[in-house]
């Protein structure tokens, strides 16, 4: 999709059309740009840019917080359109996917017609534009989709066509070549895809297995299949929040872990996975990140996740915190628990009662109906607004 978050907002509010629109944090807040409209990109604003730098470059832009729940709903509509054409769909993000149409299309010309029809349907049914690349492989399709943005269409029919298209471009155009890999190659004078091809043995000696992949891709070779995402393939599930001001109140951090644990458990339940370990993540004000993990018998209920995350929080260094996160790992579609004597004869409250007590305590401290609105906390917008309200309320209580 073309500038997806911004495009959805412009569709829903035509007064934004033609203006430099930046979706992400607001000026003065902490955070980054999620998406910038093409008008904003003319000022050098791009995704993942620090919001302060974006504001320096584009002070007259329109800045908005993202509405993730709205974008997720539109993404479901997109997937319904994509899925009606494909043998397999590999979703990359809300707004991007690889479609394997080998069997449904039958030949390249039919695939090309499908690509144009998908563009037409998205424009007519959702009033949004997308860029489609039709090609023989995933890497070529990705490159083709970016060749004529926005609202573009491009075909790459053969490995030779792909190799010819990119041969004079920087090595970063090759999949898996990030900043560090590019620096290694540049330091050896290997700057373009053509250099990779002509000095392939040197690239392989320098980068090993990655070098083999890169040199093959420089010749147009990419035999990866389109692999649909399966929830059971997830390695971990987590949720984190960044504070607008550093937090030095560990009682507040503990309370926020209750909210994050509810979000993690809701996601795990939605995809039918159970956790065998709990993680805690912190980023301090100086940007030093720490993480803690613990294998547990069960990490499925919010009260269980919170208990372990809270315990790990009590063991970390106490100084100002910029970000906190909680998660589960060692995921399985089946829950296998063997009761112990401690379980049978324990005086501990059942998890539901533990959670209810925690939510009632939060309600008293922050003046919100946490128990009645627990299901809404998993919504991204609700989560961030709730955490920021809790932070401000806790700070005011200490004044």
Question: Overview of this structure, please?
Answer:
This protein has about 400 residues and is α+β, with helices and mostly antiparallel strands. The chain folds into four domains: about 5-65, MutS, DNA mismatch repair protein, domain I (3-Layer(aba) Sandwich), CATH 3.40.1170.60; about 70-155, 2-Layer Sandwich (Alpha-Beta Plaits); about 160-220, 5' to 3' exonuclease, C-terminal subdomain (DNA polymerase, domain 1, Orthogonal Bundle), CATH 1.10.150; about 230-399, 2-Layer Sandwich (Dna Ligase, domain 1), CATH 3.30.1490. The protein has 17 helices and eleven strands. It has helices at about 5-10, 40, 50-55, 70-85, 100-105, 110-125, 140-145, 160-165, 180-185, 195-200, 200-205, 210-220, 250-270, 300-315, 340-345, 350-365, 380-399; strands at about 20-25, 35, 60-65, 90-95, 95-100, 130-135, 155, 235-245, 275-285, 290-300, 320-330. The strands form four sheets. Strands 8-11-9-10 form a four-stranded antiparallel sheet. A hairpin with a 4-residue loop joins strand 9 and strand 10. Helix 11 runs antiparallel to helix 12 and helix 13 (about 250-270) runs antiparallel to helix 17. Residues about 335-340 have low confidence and may be disordered.
Please give the structural blueprint.
Layout lengths: L3 H9 L8 E4 L8 E4 L1 H4 L9 H7 L4 E3 L3 H16 L4 E6 L2 E5 L1 H4 L2 H19 L5 E4 L2 H10 L5 E4 L2 H8 L12 H9 L5 H6 L1 H8 L1 H10 L17 E12 L2 H22 L3 E10 L4 E11 L2 H12 L7 E9 L11 H5 L5 H16 L13 H19 L1
Parallel strand pairs: 1-3, 6-7
Antiparallel strand pairs: 1-2, 4-5, 8-11, 9-10, 9-11
Helix pairs in contact: 4-6, 11-12, 13-14, 13-17
